[in-house]
Design a protein that fits this description.
- The protein is mainly alpha-helical and 207 residues long.
- It is 65% helix and 6% strand.
- The protein has a two-stranded antiparallel ribbon.
- The protein starts with a helix and ends with a helix.
- 3% of the residues are buried.
Length: 207
């Protein structure tokens, strides 16, 4: 990070922290006073946070982002429409906006879906179902590679534990509590491996 960006980042953090401390002071007077005393530059404002002016909304006018405020207001208007109208007209009206916000290629409003196997479904407050094409949101190759990477060390631990547990000397001389503990650990590893294998099988079928 260059000096200019670093300097302004520190200025923003200092501005935020100093105002948070002043806001929190009535509820936490002692800790905020301690932090105020070690915060750089606060002595130029006041020697004690107790006599420092309380933050005012006008102090933040220079930090306002009118574009963000307009976007938030627009989103709130969409949400308000959802409470007053049926879902389908709203989705049709705001399709373009939702596509941009969700970073997806398309939204299609339909009465129902016959082939549901290749889709994930989410019910929205009992009003409608939202279906998403699994292949468009899941990178199967990457996910399967990650699962196989998780499986390898698990199978190695299983093999090591199985050899240890089946050893006659271990069975004869190892404390019973230790044997039970490692039997439990082996069972957990086996269950985890089964779950991963099951998931991999399902992903292969969907791919």
């Amino acid at each position: 990070m260059n000096f200019f960006n670093s300097f302004w980042s520190k200025c923003v953090l200092h501005f935020i922290l100093s105002n948070i401390l002043r806001l929190a002071h009535p509820a936490m007077p002692h800790i905020t006073e301690e932090l105020w005393q070690v915060l750089p530059g606060t002595n130029d404002i006041s020697r004690s946070i107790a006599i420092t002016p309380f933050p005012n909304v006008t102090n933040f006018n220079h930090s306002r982002n009118t574009t963000v405020e307009k976007n938030v207001d627009y989103l709130l208007s969409i949400l308000n429409d959802f409470t007053d109208k049926s879902v389908l007209p709203i989705l049709q009206e705001y399709t373009g906006t939702l596509v941009k916000l969700l970073k997806i290629t398309n939204i299609e409003c339909i009465d129902g879906l016959d082939d549901k196997e290749n889709y994930v479904c989410h019910n929205i407050d009992g009003i409608c179902n939202l279906y998403a094409d699994i292949k468009s949101i899941v990178n199967f190759e990457r996910l399967m590679t990650r699962l196989n990477d998780q499986l390898k060390p698990i199978e190695k631990k299983m093999e090591k534990l199985q050899r240890k547990i089946s050893d006659i000397n271990y069975q004869t001389y190892a404390p019973k509590e230790l044997q039970e503990k490692e039997q439990t650990a082996l069972a957990e590893l086996i269950n985890t491996a089964k779950d991963i294998h099951s998931t991999l099988k399902q992903l292969k079928a969907l791919r």
